[in-house]
Amino acid sequence: MESPRVLFVCSEIHPYLPESPVATICQALPSAIQEKGFEIRTFMPRFGCVNERRNQLHEVIRLSGLNLIINDSDHPLIIKVASISAARMQIYFIDNDDYFQRKALYRSNDDEKLWFPDNDERSIFFVRGVLETVRKLRWSPDIVHCHGWFSFILALYLRKSFKDDPLYMGSKIILSLYDEPAPERFDDDFRKKAYNDGVRSKDLEQMAEPTFENLMKVCINFADAVIAGSPNVDENIMNYAIENNKRVLEYQSPEKYVDKYAEFYESLLTRRRRKNKRLQ
Which of 13, 161, 185, 227 would staple 249 via disulfide (CB 3.0–4.6 Å)? Predict the structure, then answer.
C-alpha cells in the first residue's frame, strides 16, 4: 500500500520566521508525520523578511513562470525551495515581487494596527500558487492541512476551481485555527477579487460583510475538518464548524498533538475509503 500523502500549507514556519504558534507547529509537525510513514510536501509564503542567503533558498525554474490573475492584474508565480536539514524536510516557497517583497508579514512594522490593504490578494495568490505548483509536481495529496488564516481560502479554490482535477479528487481538507493576530476586516472588494473559474456568487455570500469571522466561515464551508491549534481559538468559529457537521479535533498539548493528528488523518482517510468502497 502506498504511504498516505499530506500537503502542509503553512502561513509561517520556523526557523524561516520567528517562533509563533503557527511557525512552531509547522516546523515540527510535517517532520514528525513523515517519520510516521506519511509522504509530505510543505509550502509557505516567501515573505520579504525571510533571509534567502542565510536559509539557502533557490528558485526552481521548472516550477516558476506561471502568471496568476488577481484583481484583473497578472502576477508572476515564482517557486523557491530550501531544506531544514535537521528535520530532513524540504520547504517550497511561493514568491512574487508585488506581494512578498515587503519586510513584514501582514501589517506595517511602523504601525502594528495598520494591516496591509492587499492581504486578501496576497492570501489568494499564495493558495492558488500552492495548488498550481502541486499540480506541476503531479503529486496527489490525500490530505491538505492548512495552518493559519492566511492559508484558509485554499479550501474554497480546491473545492470549486480545482474540483474536476483528478489530482485533487478525494483530498480531505483540514483547517488548523490558531490564536493569531488577524485583521478584523478585509477590503470591500474581497468577493470580487476571489472570483475565479468555478467560484460562484453564492459561494461567497457570507463575505458581503468582509470580516475575518465571515471569511473563516466561508472557508469552513468547504473544509472537511477543523483543528484547534491553540488553546484559545475563537469559540464562535469553532462552534460554527461543529454546527455545520465538520469533524473537529480540540486542542492537543505539545506532548500529544503529533499522535492525535496522525490518528485524525487516519480517521478521515478511513471514512474516505469506506465511501469509495460503497460507490464501487
Answer: 227
Q: Which domain, by its residues, includes 13?
A: 5-43+118-279
What digits encode the pLDDT tens for the residues 228-279? Answer: 999 999 999 999 999 999 999 999 999 999 999 999 999 999 876 555 544 4
Looking at the 3D structure of the chain, how many domains does it have?
1
HEC profile of the chain: CCCCEEEEEECCCCCCCCCCHHHHHHHHHHHHHHHCCCEEEEEEECCCCCCHHHHCCEECCCCCCCEEEECCEEEECEEEEEEEHHHCEEEEEEECHHHHCCCCCCECCCCCCCECCCHHHHHHHHHHHHHHHHHHHCCCCCEEEEECHHHCCHHHHHHHCCCCCCCCCCCEEEEEECCCCCCCECCCCHHHHHCCCCCCHHHHHHHHCCEHHHHHHHHHHCCCEEEECCCCCCHHHHHHHHHCCCEEECCCCCCCHHHHHHHHHHHHHHHHHHHHHHHC
pLDDT at residue 87, rounded to an integer: 72
pLDDT tens for 91-143 read 999 999 999 999 999 998 766 678 999 999 999 999 999 999 999 999 999 99
Q: Please report whether residue 140 resides in a domain.
A: yes
The CATH number that applies at residue 196 is 3.40.50.2000
Query: pTM (2 decimals)?
Result: 0.95
